[in-house]
Amino acid sequence: MAWLDLENAFGSVPHRFILEALGHAGVPSSTVSLISALYTGSTSTIRTSAGWTGPIPMRAGVRQGCPLSAILFNLSLEQVLRTGISAPGFRLYGQEVKCLAYADDLLLLRQSPVDLQDNIDSICNVAALAGLRFKPSKCASLSFNYTGNKRSIDDAPFLVAGTHIRNIQGQEAYKYLGVRVGLNYRQDNTEFFQGITRDVKLVAASPLAPWQKLTAIRAHILARAEFLCRNSHIQKRDVADLDKTLISTGKRIVNLPTRANVNLVHLSCNKGGAALPLFRALLDVYSISHAFRLLASDDHLTSDVAFAGLQSAVRKKILRDPTPSECAEFLNGNKAGDFARDSGDLSTQWPRARQAADRLSKYVKFSWTYNEELGCFHFNIFRSPNPVCVVPSTAGLVARLLRDDLESFYIKQLSSLVNQGKTVEVFSQHPASNHFLQAVDFTRFCDWNFIHRARLGCLQLNATMRFSKRNPKCQDPGFWICRVFYRPVSPWNFSCVDADFYYSLLFVWTF
């Protein structure tokens, strides 16, 4: 296999080639004329210290920021791939795979080094005719032999445009679409998550407002980690320190004591929490979601290869050819009958999805089923009062639905506590109760530091201090809390200052 990277791909495609590619793709002539009017005769001017330059003709490249640009580039590259790739591809579970392409990142697969080199030369020649060229320094190859159940690296050199490209060896890996790939590469993401943990601590120690810290952590730091969790195999031990840091940091930001329950940290902002996820649970959610999306893919090659891989994993478990219904039982984590064997699991996507289902089923009730009539897998989530059945056309909802049900479990677990869960069922019912956590309208720092402690019953009162020998009575004889109501309160009875306490706590102070 060879990873090829185009140099300045979006800015190098000639307009002439774009219009020709549209014609080959069967785009109506009226649409081609409209696109031609956009690109033909286009110019650009540059403002310099001496003034504006004259018109500079633009004869290549798609427009940056235009929603049409990605479509035009893909159609142009499609012609390059179809013309340049002709040799037989790699056979994977009976399916022929020739090329994987995402924008300008290409992956060519062949059965032999000779065929791969011929294909590289062919696609380089066709790309040159289209005004495109590959950057050898960003390209790489991986060639190996598989004989007698043993894999060995083949040191065959490969050339791109007459230049040798890097050959992946031993424990080395190539980063393709954000995920490292290699033959004997052992994914160790410890350093990556240590960097995420360090960034979380730096943001927490910054002079930002508390709500700004939460937004920065979620939007700019954890988003990087979630992408890797969705698309790579992550060990639970890799995220252990990150989970501990998020819990302790989240408690400090929302001004909760150490003894406060951690579930409030994991709830979304609409439910009154800090929206800092528990990555140990997210890994299981994404493992199940990714498995279902592979089986439900609109691309028949992807879904067929995924189903064949699932059948292979189940076959190693039960030592016979499985039926689709047995594949669903395998994914459900069934351990009865033929599935009771301890051996047979390999470290692939499907056993990992099976193990994730076994762990996640303790918190969320769901099941895999196979619809014989439609010939596809369904994913059922038994939420109350209305169960949900996810079909292939809505496969993208699996992760969100599982995360929502995880939140419901956190709320249920928190509400079962005697001393900290008396109000969570109320303030988590509607986003209006928690709008200030993100919008921070009419919210002062003292309000922010008070509301989360009040909701969990963790206010620093003499009567609530644990293991304290102090007098539980108020030290100031003029003020005391005489009543606490845990019930929904009509918002029309309060002013903007009281908006923070809708559907939450009503404290009545008496002098």
UniProtKB/TrEMBL annotation:
<dbReference type="Pfam" id="PF00078">
    <property type="entry name" value="RVT_1"/>
</dbReference>
<feature type="domain" description="Reverse transcriptase">
    <location>
        <begin position="1"/>
        <end position="181"/>
    </location>
</feature>
<protein>
    <submittedName>
        <fullName>Retrovirus-related Pol polyprotein from type-1 retrotransposable element R2</fullName>
    </submittedName>
</protein>
<dbReference type="InterPro" id="IPR000477">
    <property type="entry name" value="RT_dom"/>
</dbReference>
<dbReference type="InterPro" id="IPR043502">
    <property type="entry name" value="DNA/RNA_pol_sf"/>
</dbReference>
<dbReference type="GO" id="GO:0071897">
    <property type="term" value="P:DNA biosynthetic process"/>
</dbReference>
<dbReference type="InterPro" id="IPR043128">
    <property type="entry name" value="Rev_trsase/Diguanyl_cyclase"/>
</dbReference>
